[in-house]
Design brief:
Layout lengths: L10 H29 L4 H33 L7 H28 L4 H35 L2 H19 L3 H16 L25
Length: about 220
């Protein structure tokens, strides 16, 4: 997946660019759930691909950088973690993880022939999509601009560097490209707009920032 957006100039550009990729898979998951309800059958292969992306890209990569790096830097600059916007975001990360676990269990049950698990997957998937869309809107519209205003130039430079190191250390070589390929494949299969066609509040993406590649 090649980015056509302008290079990231701030850490929030990187995180916001990742949101555009996540939104691709959220749209696909929504359609997987809709189809499952209508047909009472689950496209297990697509569901597994979406969950693989969510676990590795949305949670490990994106939420990991927020929790371990961005939010911690904001806390250093005076933003509390126990209350306020960051506390809300952290709580929603945990809610999302529980929903993803439920979705994964439902897929496994579907593979065993449990017909009721199709509905369970669809319900939890819809909840997850709604949660993440609202979560992304709050981060892009409120927390990211607020947080960026608190950062110093040296903070931004340090976050760019730490984002790249985090991804290499946590995901390993080639995994990010694999996750982007999953998003591209799901977009094509379910007829949703790719990340490059989505307007972003700020430019850039995870692996195309001004400070080098994350891979």
């Amino acid at each position: 997946m090649q980015s056509t957006t302008k290079p990231a100039t701030k850490p929030i550009d990187v995180l916001s660019g990742e949101h555009r990729v996540i939104e691709v898979v959220l749209d696909a998951v929504e359609r997987i759930a809709e189809s499952a309800r209508k047909t009472r059958k689950l496209d297990v292969e697509s569901a597994q691909s979406a969950l693989k992306f969510i676990r590795n890209f949305a949670d490990r990569c994106h939420h990991g950088k927020e929790e371990e790096l961005f939010f911690k830097k904001l806390h250093e600059r005076g933003m509390p973690r126990g209350v306020g916007p960051v506390a809300v975001m952290l709580d929603e990360h945990e809610i999302g993880r529980r929903l993803v676990r439920d979705m994964g269990q439902a897929v496994e049950a579907c593979e065993r022939g449990d017909a009721d698990a199709v509905t369970k997957f669809a319900d939890r998937a819809s909840e997850y999509v709604e949660l993440l869309r609202d979560h992304i809107a709050k981060e892009d519209g409120v927390l990211f601009p607020m947080g960026d205003a608190m950062l110093r130039d040296e903070d931004r430079a340090a976050l760019f560097e730490s984002f790249a190191k985090f991804e290499v250390a946590d995901m390993g070589a080639g995994v990010h490209q694999e996750m982007e390929a999953i998003a591209t494949s799901l977009a094509a299969r379910y007829g949703v707009a790719p990340a490059a066609d989505r307007g972003a509040p700020s430019g850039g993406g995870c692996c195309h920032g001004a400070h080098g590649s994350c891979h």
